[in-house]
Amino acid sequence: MKDIARDLGVSLMTVSKALRNHSDISQQTRERVLKRMRELNYQPDWIARSMVTRRTYLVGLVLPDLMHSFFAEVAKGVARKLGPLGYQIVISNTEEEGEAERRHVEVLLTRKVDGLIIASAQRNGQVELFEILDRSKVPYVLIDRMVAGVEANYVGVKDDDLGALATEHLIEQGCRRIAHIRGPALATGTGRLRGYRRALARHGMEVGPNYIVSGQYGDTTGYEAMRELLQTNPRPDGVFCYNDPVAAGAIKAVLEAGLKVPEDIAIVGAGNVHYSDLLRVPLSTVDQGSSVIGESAADLLSQCMEAKAPVSPRRIFTTPRLIVRDSSRRKETVV
Amino acid sequence: MKDIARDLGVSLMTVSKALRNHSDISQQTRERVLKRMRELNYQPDWIARSMVTRRTYLVGLVLPDLMHSFFAEVAKGVARKLGPLGYQIVISNTEEEGEAERRHVEVLLTRKVDGLIIASAQRNGQVELFEILDRSKVPYVLIDRMVAGVEANYVGVKDDDLGALATEHLIEQGCRRIAHIRGPALATGTGRLRGYRRALARHGMEVGPNYIVSGQYGDTTGYEAMRELLQTNPRPDGVFCYNDPVAAGAIKAVLEAGLKVPEDIAIVGAGNVHYSDLLRVPLSTVDQGSSVIGESAADLLSQCMEAKAPVSPRRIFTTPRLIVRDSSRRKETVV
DNA sequence: CTGAAAGCGCTAACAG
DNA sequence: CTGTTAGCGCTTTCAG
Fold first, then answer.
1. Which of A43, A76, A89 lies closest to B110 in CB terms?
2. Would you call B48 and A51 a contact, using CB atoms and an 8 Å cutoff?
3. Which residues pair with B9 in a beta bridge?
4. Nucleotides of chain C within 7 Å of a protein C-beta?
5. DSSP conformational letter for B217
6. Which residues, listed in sequence order, are joined to residue B115 by a DSSP beta bridge?
7. Is B50 in contact with B86 (CB distance < 8 Å)?
8. What's the predicted TM-score (pTM) here?
9. What is the full per-residue pLDDT of chain B (335 aa) written as tens digits?
């Protein structure tokens, strides 16, 4: 930059302004500066700039599990929106551990990210992290998982509705003994469970004994949980699973037991991960609009980051959409 | 920092040194500084520090596709190693486009990352990007995909061996007409193809007419490619697929055609993505050690970044490991 | 429209 | 062991 100024016989300031096409600079000078800058292949030093502007154009994306393609898709959505605006995305993988999540967020704050998008693994009521966040004044958006007791921007599905939708579908397919492999004690897990209960109640159906078992996030836990369910008597004829990986594990267990999906047991997952279609039995699922979630979260966040005054939190809900594949299709559905 | 110094009646420098536990500072002073720093909840300003040290502790990870769980796993491996060393990881998703990759890398260079790990989508012989990289003096490690004509650090499998291993296995299982759904014109694609040819040659077998069809990266292309293969006459009885997603798509096509896997057509993929086990037919595959690749790359890179003088490029090869599941098991294998 | 002065928060180099 | 001086590359403020 100094070089450009010297070469052109103008001051540093002129160059600085020209580069950021600041208003008060003559068209002609600007051109000359830009030309010389290209010749020298000059790149503004982003760090020096940050130092004085207090903006890093870094955004933290905190996810519990990159391997779960739902989150990978969210990440893509976020990048698609934020990239063009000049932001870089720093991804942190918390492995579903609230403690690790806190550390990661703190590091990102030290790094002075301009904003954060978080799919939190904090248990309901664990609000400490968010107090830190609020104090820091760095804008953030929660995705996929609301956290009870936290007033914050949120983008995601209404989990109750998702659970109800999946369960209603099983009822419609003629299932009479519907079980649920529930997720962790987060908003997603409890919400989906609530939806499951709501749907059954509405149809005057009861939750069978031991019909709610606890899976966690992955296929192995789904497998284990299903094996438990297979022990119950009477055996369920339909299972709504917390998410697709869990459902995939569950299918494996059912088939191994020599039973058929969906004839003996119909199964529905959630998340519509991109390989749902390729599983042993193509998996019925509820789509949450993963990339839309990423994009909306990015939009919302960029508004907050751009705003000079803090904006009051908003909540954006995506609509869960049922996708019926073989794992739950027991009746010829008329389209 | 100024505050700490003032409160303690020492100079800025003393504080600065104490915080970085620089050698020449008295134990006592250091304690006092650290104590006060905790009281004030002081966080060193990382940007200001970068400005003078010329180190950002940022590492760019450039991947062609986050949705492919192979890369997600690599990312996790990288994070596991680099996180504890104080590096943050900036992930870029290039969508398999060389052009986008170049732009992303350039942005990362402007951002002054300390190093890069790249699974490149540059075609063989497309070396421009790497010339830029070399000129920038920023150390980088190529993973998974070597690029012909580029002397650089590399961590990954020998693709020839991988291809040969998979093909030999099909031969061993009694397949006599083995086809290949090949990948893109990158080192991985051409290497695996070469291995496939080598294995056939070694057994005096010929490549059937139109037995090499071009898939790309994903399941849809695998599906299409397989449908093409099904038209050939005689039909192949074994197919080695570029990677697991392609193989998953291929299986779908075979089953849809009313044929059986592996009885009619045996299938082997590559990559051992974590859901390989849950597919319509559990998929035989070749494991490349995804997380080991990530970890080794991280180790190698951190050595380069730590080193004061540029280190000469090294290549680290992981051993491909065959994993036999149902999609290719035609004989009772004696273990 | 252009420029001079001041400083962002920190550290390297050297002197005491 | 501690402190002084200088400066990283840029922008903000305000005066020409």
1. A43
2. yes
3. none
4. 1-5, 7-13
5. S
6. B59
7. no
8. 0.92
9. 778 878 888 888 888 888 887 777 888 888 888 888 888 888 888 999 999 999 999 999 999 999 898 999 999 999 999 999 999 999 999 999 999 999 999 999 999 999 999 999 999 889 999 999 999 999 999 999 999 889 999 999 999 999 999 999 999 999 999 999 999 999 999 999 999 999 999 999 999 889 999 988 888 999 999 999 999 999 999 999 999 999 999 999 999 999 999 999 999 999 999 888 889 899 999 999 999 999 999 999 999 999 988 899 999 999 999 999 999 998 765 54
